[in-house]
Amino acid sequence: MGTQNTKAQNPPKNRGGTAAGALNYVKHHWQLYVIFLLPALLLTIIFKYIPMGGIMIAFEDYNPIGGILQSRWVGMKHFQRFLSSPDFMTYLVNTLKLSIYGLLWGFPVPILLAFLLNRIQSARIKKSIQTVLYLPNFISVIVLCGLVRILLSVTGPLNLMMGTQINFMTMPEAFRSIYIISGIWQGAGWASIMYTAALSGASQELREAAIMDGANIFQQIKAVEWPAIKDMVVIQFILQAGNVMSIGFEKAYALQTDMNIGTSEIIATYVYKKGLLDGDYSFSTAVGLFNTVINVILLVAVNKFAEKMNDGKGL
To answer: Please, which pLDDT band fits residue 231 given cuts at 50, 70 and 90?
Structure first.
């Protein structure tokens, strides 16, 4: 009787681990899931979806006193103004060059770092090197830009080593290299974490078999390690390529000078100046919306291309 009562009080669990069993469990305990998901859902709605209503400003002559609903509707006026601006192509080309060059030069570096870290056998040495590589990520953008300005100033360490007096920050042709190299130094180590974690799941048996067959390092990477991170590399490339137009204005603005503005003025800094400094809210919103639309188009296009190149696997 005791055994029967125990069985009645504790019904048998779904041991199959099937999707139907999991769905039944969720339905039975739906209140618990609502409690956990509701705060995140509310925060997402409040801070992500409700502000989207501000997009209407791009189609109005926004009046802060009257608000969005009482401002005069002008349609595509601000988009036409931006597209017909003589500086439009300059800002667009500067943004694209900075993003594409940064993607081409910066994207492979974390992958290479992960491969190199994976070759280190000593756990203590590996952790020490990882700590050194990760530290720059915790430096704020403004502090980083201050270090760059000091390093590249006329009396800075670089000029002292070279025996020159070149002010690199005033050279328009040097701005992109400064921006990209400093970005790689700051973020490559931190970006390598996910690849390093994925490589830890690579089959050690296959690697040992490849070594026994006389495979060199490059052959081991191609046959054993690359397949372990291939899908992650594709996903990260799609995400980064889809954000080609989304360069934060902080770093570009902090490294910008009157002399290098020909290459440092990008859409993000232009939006900041027009919106916050000049108070032209409608025009800056229109430029920002144009930027976002281009990003969405690029994301979809890159995802389709990646699916074709990666056996139908994309985002």
So the answer is: confident
